Amino acid sequence: MCRNATDRLVLALGLVLAAAPVFGQPVLDWRHIGNSVVEVGLAGLAGGPVDRVWYSPDGAQLYIRTRSGFTFATMDFEHWTPAKVEAPAAETVAAIRLPESGAAVRLHPGRASRLYAIGGHAYRSDDGGASWTNLTALKTRSILGPGLSDAAGSPGNPEELVVAGAFGVWRSLDGGLSWSGLNDTLPNLPVTRLVSVPAAGSAARIELGNGIEAEWHAGEKSGWRAVPPLNGEDEQRQALSIALAAEVTALARAGESIYAGSNDGRLWASLDQGRSWRLFRLPEGGTVRNLFTDAREPLFAAAILEAGQRTRVLRTINGGAFWDDLSDNLPAGKAYAVAADRLTGAVYVAAASGVYMTYAQPGQPASALVWTPLGRGLPAAEALDVRLDAAGNQLYAALAGYGVYATIAPHRFRDPRVVSAADLADRAAAPGALLTVLGAEVRSARAGDAAAPVLAAAAAESQIQVPFEVSGANLALALESSAGPLSFGLPLENTAPAIFAGGDGTPLIMDGETGLLLDGSAPARASARLQVFATGLGRVTPEWKAGTPAPLDSPPKVAATVRAYLDREPVEVTRAILAPGYIGFYLVELQLPAIVNSGPAELYLEIDGRASNRVRLYLEP
User: Which of 2, 261, 289, 484 has minimal CB crowding within 10 Å?
Assistant: First the structure.
């Protein structure tokens, strides 16, 4: 990639290469996936439970305390900062009558005649509680969500009211006639588990503490969207509890293998979809909190066991016949989840004190393990879950209140991989394609008999371009890196199309007239001309030398026929060329039809019968 010609492209893609590991601890480029609010159809974007809200005596600051016990303050009602103050005692006043059974009544400090009540709804009274006005009712539901817990009026404004509840904190400036959420930048997302991580254009999915699952699609800009539960894990645990005559507290499935753990320290393994089971009983008992298994190796699994005040990390490499204890030297405190890479022996743990990793090879004594913290660059919060993508290239962590973060999996520093530079997915190579080497700082490269230009290099990843003149069914890559020589074999195709996506998965698609990056907040309009940046489109005419920026005038054209599909319907491709001024980037221009449906649509390219990755494009009529 030509740095001086691609600054805007690099910013759009979010391509930031991590620095080298320092004193054995990887310096990782953690990126935030999504934000910390959820769209659940309320008066604004929702957050997690808040149980207290109050103003400073002069009304200059607003304080809230989340149900998890953290206190935050704001002065501008947009930005929140942690605060070390104790919540004052909640003052409940008497009223002539209550608007609903069990409602708590608060006096507005700026207007002595006004009372507010909170319960299933928020209410206002200006006659001591003889009559009440419901401030949050919309048909039969509350626009602030059920379970309101506290309310506070501003000492400096008799019409200003803030209400807290199960879905965050809400503010009114007109005595409760209209509401807006204050959750957008409040780190209070009640994430408890990573249900699935992004793969091949799919959304990230999380489980929330209030029983809701939510998705984040690439290009989304508002908030996580509540969706019906995906895999019914609770139902699976209940069914296994009956089958195994035990309270199953953790479950992991991959292919035909199933691992289950109970609340009394028993671990079961089945390699035939539950037709037969192998039991391992831990003598000290405890509760199995989490299980992990590898779809590529059914004999491999890991578990988190909570026994009294101690948390243990266990691993089996023989299908549950025996479990090794990997807990020695793990920092004290609770651990919630585990993930692992069987080839390198890397084990990752999500714990109350953050994310940790170690390398545990078979036969290695547990006392020799060194657990390395991976929290540099992450907010200081409990890590509740940890997961690897299917290829083991990306590590994801769920942090209490803050949401989901991702980075290159640190074990790639020991076991580098070559992936498509467009979306870091395993894909065949093609003439002219851009490849990313994860986990290695590449100094020089050869693709078969030809030199392959190294366009960028850092300890975490490097980018190289496949020469246009390569041929054959396989591509042999020989790399010289800071860690020594590396070799890889990749299948070689005439084309291997892939649309570029940024660090958060947003595809690199721009408005052809304005150059604006299109996403959920800037959708493509009907009849618009779009510019799609891709790689792997193969040879061009006239021929071009790899490692050289494409000319600004008359750039080479893609030799193969490029087709594009929007929701599986063909879209007109007006031209497909090497992107002017860039190295290894192709530019495909599309003409949208005059009539399009509003909302998200699936876009992909197809060349020589080979389809690219599917990406999400937001449309507006």
Answer: 484
